[in-house]
Automatic annotation (TrEMBL), chain A:
Membrane association type: Multi-pass membrane protein
Main location: membrane
The name this protein goes by in its record: Amino acid/amide ABC transporter membrane protein 2, HAAT family
InterPro entries to which the protein is assigned, alphabetical: ABC_transp_permease, LivM-like
Organism: Geodermatophilus ruber
Domain of life: Bacteria
TM stretches of this protein: 34-53, 65-88, 108-129, 136-156, 190-210, 238-259, 271-301, 313-336
Molecular-function GO term, any one: branched-chain amino acid transmembrane transporter activity
Record keywords: Cell membrane, Membrane, Transmembrane, Transmembrane helix
One of the record's GO cellular component terms: plasma membrane
Localization: Cell membrane
A Pfam family reported for this protein in Swiss-Prot or TrEMBL: BPD_transp_2
From TrEMBL, chain B:
Species in which this protein is naturally found: Geodermatophilus ruber
One of the Pfam families matching this protein, by short name: BPD_transp_2
Cited InterPro entries: ABC_transp_permease, BCAA_transport_permease
Membrane-crossing segments per the record: 6-29, 41-74, 94-113, 134-159, 191-214, 221-250, 256-276
Organism taxonomic ancestry: Bacteria, Bacillati, Actinomycetota, Actinomycetes, Geodermatophilales
Keyword Nucleus recorded: no
Biological process annotations from GO: amino acid transport
Name listed for the protein in its UniProt record: Amino acid/amide ABC transporter membrane protein 1, HAAT family
GO CC term (a single one): plasma membrane
Keyword Membrane: yes
Family the UniProt entry places it in: Belongs to the binding-protein-dependent transport system permease family. LivHM subfamily.
Topology in the lipid bilayer: Multi-pass membrane protein
UniProtKB/TrEMBL annotation, chain C:
A GO CC term assigned to this protein in UniProt: plasma membrane
Pfam family name, one: BCA_ABC_TP_C
Annotated ABC transporter domain residues: 6-246
UniProt keyword annotations, A-Z: ATP-binding, Nucleotide-binding, Transport
Protein name listed in UniProt: Amino acid/amide ABC transporter ATP-binding protein 1, HAAT family
Entry GO MF terms: ATP binding; ATP hydrolysis activity
Length: 351, 285, 248
């Protein structure tokens, strides 16, 4: 973008993000940032889920969806790039892992490796097209790619099972130093949960490191002002593409785990699934990695309880989402870390 | 030969409906600077309102006049209440807000009208076939093309010939300038959003007799409308028109000759355009 | 004599038939503080954009530090050591003052590192603190940039450019919209910076330019009207006429 001389522009008012600016103005100085503490919170959350959620498949699903949402938030929250097609890498990971287990070997490591690596490669290609132009294009193009993936999966039914989904995925075996365990979510959900939790924690730690690294910081700077980031010498598209690949690989891993959990990969319109994970991110809050994780857990809780009593439960979810964007753009996490502490501070002062 | 021609006409019809949605998206993006994700859902709402009106009045004709007005009012109401707080916030927020609105609209319609969908009957006046020599076509399809042509011409004249259109076009090019001139910018934003939604409503009315109405009808066409906007070039009026018709016809012909690929073709076209001409067919640099 | 750090030869750019910049040549020697003045619309900002690669010239070449940079993308030009401070303040609004500068400071050596925390890279942190000290914002290091006063935001804008350790600094109206006291402080800062970095600046305020520039180019309707030392510019009749009336 070029800044051409317009008379009114010389007053130096920042042109972008005026109200976001007022949001920040409320707090004045920068709020304390959670970094590695998020990892501790995640451990606590995983333990709470393990002991309170009665349905083991739901509990494991929470971990998987949480990781998926946290990875998406690299793009949405940290990069300012709203992907409407994040179901694509999730589904791809599922198919890749499922097909590997079905046709190649029952090794869980191999299946997950195939899911992650193949999705990273695919992400690089898809991202190269989606990031050709500005952020506005990005949202539309990611959605279009997800839809393209849906049609391909639907038509190529010899491989994917088409409309019926990819069924009969065998129970994977996991090689560990000194032993091998079966990942059977039905017969031994605890093992599945623990293995998933460990994997999720490790990847989550990697995501924190990414956001704290020079590369991750540049990503956030690009969100604030791409022009200025270029002026510092950064190839901004490269940073965004790298992040797209990381988010895609994480979603691929989550999709692979999900396929192992259900021994099945279902086909459903991806805009629907992409929407769900996006809701999780916004509901939980996009200013952290833990927020989306929390959002995933809360969303799945809402789904499992509301859907029992109310057929149109998604109406409630949609309304909550709209209210969130309107009034709590920082989501649950923002509510917990900014709004509530603020209330306490006020009370203390009046005392 | 006859099959080929009727397939092309079918493609033009579905393309024409895409054009209406893409033009609305373009117009709203131009002035309000965000992608209206709820455009497809609003189109669906328009189609539902028309289906009820048609039953109540016994004909689709009143709906063709009333629905655009209702949808414009709905659009203006939405803009004034929930979209307005988004201005000045991150562009992403408006996108997310309209995405959430989509959920509310689809689920709301499902709750009121059920998930099954409704049929809309073709107006009696148009229940005949037009003989074009080689092929006979339902008059209603030709009617749709004519109506879309009129709407496109109307929009074009509105943007080119009226003072309001002039200000809207200037605003699309340079917001700062327009604000400096003391133009009541907010009112034009409301107007443009209402206009875009009204046009989507017209598309909804026209779709009814062809495919019937159902809650998800907006989702699929919205994705295609995005493809049209990208292929035509963001912000380009004639780009949207050309790309819409092109994609309509290409999909229709693929359905005839290689139906397996019909769903995939628009996206392949989009990827090609983004790779070799990222600004779109008629987009400005 | 060494080669000038920046050479622009016969730069030309027209928009729709109107020459925004018409056959302008510049030579900026190492260590100079060169100013460009001219009435609104005289092509100053377009000239900057031609140098930084934001706009492609219709004709002419730009050489920077012994290398042809004509038509090179802006980020690459920036990596070669050419930094720009903006006319419309451009900072990273929701990042802290410290992070704003740190992002620029890490660009040189640690651009695409993703395997270690950024705050742990000592050299970058030290360089950031040094720059904050220099621009006088050390006390505001944890403030969100958008909460700064206008004057401080402009200083931060300059600080970001400075933190990339440039060999040439382009300043586009560094004192625009500033109060007299803020202007004075910025003038001092620019003078101080010029001790170790070459500066090319656009400025409107005549008094500012006459007090700090060692060479001045006057642009008028996209063409170079005059170039010389401040005292010559002051006394040049044509320049006075153009600059004071804004027309010819």
């Amino acid at each position: 973008m070029t800044h051409l001389t317009t008379p009114s522009a010389t007053d130096g008012t920042p042109t972008a993000g005026e109200a976001a600016v007022t949001v920040a103005r409320l707090s004045g100085a920068a709020p304390a940032r959670w970094t590695w503490g998020q990892l501790g919170l995640l451990v606590v959350l995983a333990v709470v889920v393990l002991f309170t959620v009665p349905n083991p498949s739901l509990a494991i699903g929470m971990l998987i969806y949480g990781l998926w949402a946290a990875g998406l938030n690299l793009l949405v929250g940290y990069g300012g790039l709203v992907s409407f097609g994040h179901a694509l890498p999730f589904a791809w990971g599922g198919y890749a892992a499922g097909l590997t287990l079905l046709h190649v070997s029952s090794s869980a490591w191999l299946a997950l490796l195939v899911a992650v690596v193949s999705m990273a490669v695919l992400s690089a290609l898809v991202g190269a097209v989606c990031l050709r132009r500005t952020e506005v294009y990005f949202s539309m193009l990611t959605l279009a790619f997800a839809q393209l993936g849906f049609f391909i999966a639907l038509q190529w039914d010899d491989l994917t099972g088409g409309d019926d989904g990819l069924a009969g995925i065998p129970v994977p075996t996991l090689w560990l130093p000194g032993t091998t365990v079966e990942l059977n979510a039905l017969r031994d959900p605890l093992t599945f949960f623990v293995v998933t939790a460990v994997l999720v924690l490790v990847v989550f730690a990697g995501l924190i490191l990414y956001t704290e690294s020079p590369m991750g910081r540049v990503l956030q700077a690009i969100r604030e002002s791409e022009e200025r980031a270029r002026g510092c010498g950064y190839s901004t598209r490269l940073v965004q593409l790298a992040t797209f690949v990381v988010a895609g690989a994480v979603a691929g891993l989550a999709g692979g785990l999900f396929a192992m959990l259900n021994n099945f990969v279902g086909l459903q319109p991806y805009w629907l699934l992409s929407g769900v994970v996006l809701i999780m991110v916004i509901l939980g809050g996009r200013s952290s990695l833990f927020g989306p994780f929390l959002g995933a857990v809360v969303y799945l809780l809402l789904e499992s309880t509301l859907s029992r009593y109310f057929a149109s439960w998604q109406l409630i979810v949609g309304a909550i989402f709209v209210i969130c964007v309107l009034a709590f753009p920082q989501g649950l996490w923002g509510l917990l870390t900014q709004t509530l502490p603020g209330l306490f501070r006020k009370r203390r002062r009046t005392r | 030969m006859g099959q080929l021609i009727s397939q092309i006409v079918l493609g033009l019809v579905s393309g024409a409906l895409l054009v209406l949605l893409a033009l609305g998206l373009n117009l709203i993006f131009g002035l309000l600077e965000f992608i209206n994700f709820s455009h497809g859902a609003l189109y669906m709402v328009g189609a539902y309102v028309a289906s009820y009106l048609a039953v109540a009045t016994g004909s689709l004709w009143p709906a063709l006049l009333v629905v655009p007005v209702v949808m414009a009012l709905l659009g203006a109401g939405l803009e004034r209440t929930i979209i307005r707080p988004m201005y000045g916030r991150d562009q992403v927020d408006a996108l997310l807000l309209t995405f959430g609105l989509t959920y509310v609209l689809i689920e709301g319609v499902r709750m009121i009208a059920g998930s099954g969908g409704r049929r809309v009957s073709t107006p009696e006046l148009l229940r005949f076939q037009v003989d074009l020599g080689i092929v006979r076509l339902p008059a209603y399809l030709l009617f749709v093309v004519v109506v879309v042509g009129l709407v496109v011409a109307g929009l074009h004249l509105f943007l080119r010939r009226t003072d309001v259109g002039l200000i809207v076009r200037a605003g699309i090019r340079d917001h700062v300038m327009i604000r400096a001139l003391g133009v009541p910018f907010d009112r034009y934003r409301t107007l443009v959003f209402a206009l875009g939604v009204a046009v989507a409503g017209i598309a909804g009315v026209l779709t009814g007799p062809i495919t019937g109405v159902y809650p998800e009808m907006g989702a699929d066409i919205l994705i295609l409308a995005f493809v049209v906007v990208v292929v035509g070039g963001m912000g380009s009026f004639w780009g949207a028109v050309v790309a819409g018709l092109l994609i309509g016809v290409v999909v229709s012909l693929t359905t005839l000759y290689a139906s397996v690929y019909a769903g995939i073709v628009p996206f392949v076209l989009m990827i090609l355009v983004m790779t070799f001409r990222p600004r779109g067919l008629l987009g400005a640099t | 004599m060494t080669e000038p750090i920046l050479t622009a030869a016969g730069l030309d750019r027209s928009f729709g038939g109107i020459h925004a910049v018409n056959d302008v040549s510049l030579e900026i020697p190492q260590g100079a503080l060169h100013a460009i003045i001219g009435p609104n619309g005289s092509g100053k900002t377009t000239l900057f954009n031609l140098i930084t690669g934001h706009t492609r010239p219709s004709a002419g070449r730009v050489r920077f530090a012994g290398e042809d940079i004509t038509g090179m993308p802006y980020s690459k030009v920036a990596r070669k050591g050419l930094a720009k401070s903006y006319q419309i303040t451009t900072v990273f609004p929701l990042l802290t003052v410290f992070e704003n500068v740190r992002i620029a400071a890490q660009a040189a050596a640690h651009s695409y590192v993703f395997w270690r925390p950024a705050d742990g890279i000592r050299a970058v942190v030290a360089h950031t603190e040094e720059v904050l000290e220099r621009i006088g914002l050390a006390g505001e290091r944890d403030v969100i940039a958008s909460n700064l006063s206008h004057g401080d935001q402009r200083r931060l804008d300059l600080g970001i450019a400075l933190a990339t350790s440039p060999r040439l600094l382009l300043l586009d109206e560094p004192t625009a919209g500033m109060s007299p006291s803020e202007t004075a402080a910025t003038v001092e800062l620019v003078k101080e910076l010029n001790r170790d970095v070459t500066i090319l600046m656009i400025e409107h305020k005549m008094d500012v330019i006459l007090s700090i520039a060692d060479r001045i180019t006057v642009l008028h309707q996209g063409e170079k009207l005059f170039e010389g030392a401040p005292e010559d510019v002051k006394s040049h009749p044509r320049v006075q006429e153009v600059y004071l009336t804004g027309t010819l």
